[in-house]
Write a structure and sequence with these properties.
The protein contains eleven helices and 20 strands. It is an alpha/beta fold. α6 links the parallel β14 and β15. Bound molecules: zinc ion (ZN).
Length: 370
């Protein structure tokens, strides 16, 4: 039986990491069509920093506070208020689940085409709704997905937002194929490490860029053919592609990195951007772009089907998300400082303090059935 109150990390107003406060709040109410999940782990994304600051780069976000942050979570289903008896339930009470972070209205044309991230009513856990930096979260039943047996709760929490984004970029948009060469910028980031796993599973060759030699060596251990500092992008791409340029490039950084990426992509290649963690304004020469005939895609997260396909890939290949470290929920402020320092490889994961120790690390736990 769920408790009436829980620990949660709340931003009461926009600001720096210090605005994050561990508080006792009510366990979310269970509305029709929703499930209550007892969270075992949640993961940080750069999105959380924007939500905490109330702006994305120069642009204010339409946020309301107080807000429980967190778009990624994994745990156990403890209650459900399912209303549609004619539809097959994706999971049952007691199941290990991870949460699909985005939710469309389900009835508009985009949603019915499966393009839920294009829905004008699309909402994201931890942004428009209270999120996963908590002991419990209530989410639509249709947003629950079973955790592959090989993944722990910590690993499962590290999957959703980055894998949905990376799968949408590489597979749904760029249609990366076996044998192609892909440039992954910020290869040590959450999206970068997810993209590396996906590109390897597809049989592509990966060139990574990162800000430190440690991140570069971790990326090559995980299967990148070459990983170099951003300043060495041009030379590495020329060497690996024999001067042709990469077939596909993905960028999450912006600024100079984006401009160098355009030059590193072959004529007729594809570039996908999912935003900019550095400066978002760049100066582009349209004549130069026209001559290179590159296709650009700009994406926000991805569809729930993208996430399901990515999870199926993890199951098939036995690969795991890269987890940098696990901290207790009460250290959310320190975790945000760490994330902003960019000294993280892969994901930062938070575990409720009561379970910190038991669920620690990237090891396996027995499947929970009760
Ligand atoms: Zn819709």
């Amino acid at each position: 039986m769920a408790r009436s109150s829980m620990a949660a990390v709340i931003a009461r107003a926009p600001g720096g990491p210090e605005v994050l406060e561990l508080a006792q709040v009510s366990v979310p109410r269970l509305l029709p069509g929703y499930a209550l999940v007892e969270l075992r782990a949640c993961a940080l994304n750069h999105l959380d920093v924007w939500v905490r600051m109330g702006r994305r780069g120069r642009h204010p976000l339409a946020m309301t506070y107080p807000r429980i942050l967190g778009s990624d979570g994994a745990g156990v289903v403890v209650d459900m208020a399912w209303v549609d008896d004619d539809r097959q339930l994706p999971v049952a009470i007691g199941d290990r689940v991870l949460l699909s972070p985005g939710h469309g209205c389900g009835t508009c044309g985009h949603c019915r085409h499966g393009d839920d991230n294009l829905c004008r009513h699309y909402s994201v856990l931890g942004v428009e709704r209270d999120g996963t930096y908590a002991e419990y979260v209530a989410v639509p039943v249709t947003d629950l997905l079973p955790i592959p047996n090989q993944l722990s709760y910590v690993e499962a929490a590290a999957v959703p937002l980055t894998f949905i984004t990376a799968w949408h970029m590489l597979v749904s948009k760029a249609q990366l194929r076996a044998g192609e060469t892909v440039l992954i910028n910020a290869v040590g980031s959450g999206v970068g490490t997810a993209a590396l796993a996906i590109a390897k599973a597809l049989g592509a060759r990966v060139i990574g860029t990162a800000s430190s030699s440690e991140k570069c060596s971790r990326a090559t251990e995980l299967g990148a053919e070459v990983a170099v500092d951003y300043s060495e992008m041009k030379g590495a791409v020329q060497d690996v592609t024999l001067g042709q340029g990469v077939d596909v490039a993905i960028d999450t950084v912006g600024s100079d990195t984006f401009l160098q990426t355009v030059e590193a992509t072959r004529i007729g290649g594809r570039i996908v951007s999912c935003g900019a963690t550095a400066e978002a304004r760049v100066e582009l020469d349209l004549h130069r772009l026209q001559g290179r005939m590159i296709t650009f895609f700009f994406t926000v997260m991805g569809t729930q089907a993208d996430l399901m396909d990515a999870i199926a890939m993890l199951e098939r290949t036995g690969s795991r998300p890269a987890v940098d470290r696990v901290l207790p929920l009460s250290e959310a402020t320190a975790a945000h400082h760490l994330l902003e320092s960019r000294k993280v490889f892969g994901k930062l994961v938070l575990v409720p303090d009561a379970q910190y120790g038991a669920g620690r690390g990237a090891g396996r736990e027995p499947r929970t059935t009760a």
